[in-house]
Amino acid sequence: MLNVDGDKGDGRNGKDRKEGRKSAKEAPAATGRYFNRELSWILFNRRVLDEALDRTKPLLERVKFMSIFSNNLDEFFMIRVSGLCGQLHDGVVDLPPDGMTAAEQLAAIRKGIMPDLKRQLDCWHEDLLPELARNGIEILAYQELKEKQKKYLDGYFRNEIFPTLTPLAIDPGHPFPHISGLNLNFALVLRDEGKREFFARLKIPEFFPRLIRIPEDPDEKGEKTGLPRSGSVDRFIPLEELVKANLAALFPGMKIADAVLFRVTRDADIEIELDEAGDLLETMRESIDRRRFGSAVRLQIEKDAPKRVREVLTRNLELDPFQVYSLKEPIGMSTMMQLYKLDRPDLKDPPYTPSVPVELDDSRGIFHAIATRDILLYHPYDSFKPVVDFIRRASKDPDVLAIKQTLYRTGTNSPIVEALKEACQRGKQVAAFVELKARFDEENNIGWARALESAGVHVVYGIKGLKTHAKLCMVVRREKGGIKRYVHLGTGNYNTITAGIYADFGLFTANPEIGADVSDLFNVLTGYSKQKEYRKLLVAPHTLRKEIVSRVDREIEHHGKNGGGHIIFKLNSISDKESIDALYRASSAGVRVELQVRGICCLRPGIPGLSENITVTSIVGRFLEHTRAFYFHNGGREELFLGSADLMTRNLDRRVECLFPVEDPLIKQRILNVILPVHLKDNAQSSTLTSDGEYVRLRSSEDTAPIDSQRWMIENPRMVFLDE
């Protein structure tokens, strides 16, 4: 495999192979072999925050990353922290590979998150807000408004917002209300004329935008908020500011002593006992409804909230002090993504036009093109349109007999779903495997499932005990030579929106063995097939773990005989103990191991006698690095697999995943000689993981040219060899 600079990697990392063979006694104790999963995730999200803090990036891109950081943290508390709280409550004593108890993890999570929250809010107030104002985007407090603007917005409050508000008293006759997750609320302390105090809660309606547009010079009739900008400046007021300024209208005859903004995060992990679920669709719908009532796991509250208010909330929400986060406003910054939607191309990354492979420019149609040779797409640099066209053409082609497809996250207004419905209406056999358990997309998928069923599509919802994460589409076509299968396999979802911002591989092939494997796998998904062995595919939960580990061990064997051992994995996460231990064995044997892991990495690189031949880098940039690629030097007979699976226990044991081989020589060369090397040599967006668990941002020097892998791919999307 060639590096970006053209040097051949020999797999020895500059040392003789024998130097890697040290005794086990020299390796760290078991508890020092692995990083904690949750703390590794915090480090990933910190790298997301670093993007927001980077002043070299366009302003609204920084705001976008600030919002993503907050949204990621919300989901982390809803799923991961809630799980740890449950373990603590239930007295679970099973320890993860790193040996930390649930209590230790919760304490470490809080310790790790607090500095990041401070950095985020300091950046917002001291950097982003002033920069936004200098660029004609102002977020104002109510007291900063002109009188005419106040008058207009007060009218907007009375006419639009006020009728939707429902203040809830809290007293012996009015029990503490349910506080829904992730909504903004005011905790109110009120006084009557007799100085008696009362407590109330007011939910801020979520169907209004977080930022209300301020007209520059509203006329007497007023104008709707949220209209396109008029003039040179966009001005906004936070919704909670406007509500707070008009609270008196809700409580005539009362004095508002305190109005404290807060937000609750609840356990959102859905657990389903499939043995008891007669109808999975209905069970999922009911479970989604129950999600609203999950246990509270976090309280975000204004920094200067009075003690009595804090005590009322924590007591009624049944929270411990470590679950309370006192923050400078604004609370819930994920909603600031609203700013990114402004029509300000001057404050965003420059647009680009995805390419379309020349191989698909075939007058005889897409099926002839795929039959001629395999075709690789690398999104978002390559357009996702050919994937949509593939299914659309199949839906209209009179020679197509059947279409089978997995759907995990399809997004809204999916053209792929519409094409499947049309195919069914045209009399073709259409089967769709819709994974209802795709986290936070359950409602969308239930809707698509019902729409597909109504159109006559055979819809399958899930496999007992497993989540189906594989990305597969198969078209069965009648041709002169007989029945032929055309297949698309990918690393990402069939989602036209995320395909524009996620970096993913997709492969079109008419390879008969892969087609037969995909056909067998669909029979597993839709029927009662117990197929476990496949011709070309590596499939979880049956073979994938075994096949990956055996290939690592094979690499060790080849390296021991002839040297040159080299493994490259590019993936989202690695936390599975067995997989990590296999890579440790490879490193100890002298095999060169290069890992590029976007998110969680529980493997500790660079430890003498254990992982000194392992390097770990991570790229967080304009696009989300979502590809999964697995390369083995294999004694010169190079193997490359792409697919849907990360090296996490859930992917290997509790999901249906699929890795597929890349066998076309030109495609393999493109990935091994261009795509992987340019990402591994990135010194603009990449960080390297140290043995003590810190990520160090890589920078170019006087002797090395800057390499931004994502920008390079935009500029060279269809390059096959770097020296061309």
Which short descriptors sum up this protein?
polyphosphate kinase like; alpha/beta; disordered N terminus; 724 residues; Endonuclease, Chain A; single chain; 10-stranded mixed beta sheet; 3 domains; 8-stranded mixed beta sheet
What do you see in this structure?
With 724 residues, the chain is α/β, with parallel strands linked by helices. The chain folds into 3 domains: 17-32 and 539-715, Endonuclease, Chain A, CATH 3.30.870; 103-344, Polyphosphate kinase middle domain (polyphosphate kinase like, 2-Layer Sandwich), CATH 3.30.1840; 358-530, 2-Layer Sandwich (Endonuclease, Chain A), CATH 3.30.870. 34% of the residues lie in helices and 20% in strands. The protein contains 18 helices and 27 strands. Strands 14, 18, 19, 20, 21, 23, 24, 25, 26 and 27 form a 10-stranded mixed β-sheet that branches. Strands 10, 11, 12, 13, 15, 16, 17 and 22 form an 8-stranded mixed β-sheet that branches. The protein has a 6-stranded mixed β-sheet with strand order 2-4-3-7-8-9, with helices on both faces. A hairpin with a 2-residue loop joins strand 15 and strand 16. The longest helix has 33 residues, at 102-134. Mean pLDDT is 88; it is low at 1-31, 220-230 and 272-281.
Helices, strands, pairings?
Layout: H1 37-53, H2 59-90, H3 102-134, E1 137-139, H4 147-161, E2 168-170, E3 184-191, E4 197-203, E5 211-213, E6 234-238, H5 239-245, E7 255-266, H6 280-291, E8 296-302, H7 307-317, E9 324-327, H8 337-340, H9 366-372, E10 375-379, H10 385-396, E11 400-407, H11 415-425, E12 429-434, H12 442-454, E13 458-460, E14 467-468, E15 471-479, E16 482-490, E17 502-509, H13 512-526, E18 538-540, H14 544-562, E19 566-571, H15 577-588, E20 592-597, E21 614-619, E22 624-625, E23 629-632, E24 639-643, H16 649-653, E25 655-661, H17 665-680, E26 686-689, E27 695-697, H18 709-715
Parallel strand pairs: 1-6, 8-9, 11-12, 12-13, 14-25, 17-22, 19-20, 20-21
Antiparallel strand pairs: 2-4, 3-4, 3-7, 5-6, 7-8, 10-17, 11-15, 15-16, 16-17, 18-25, 19-23, 21-26, 23-24, 24-25, 26-27
Helix pairs in contact: 1-2, 1-3, 2-3, 10-11, 14-15, 17-18
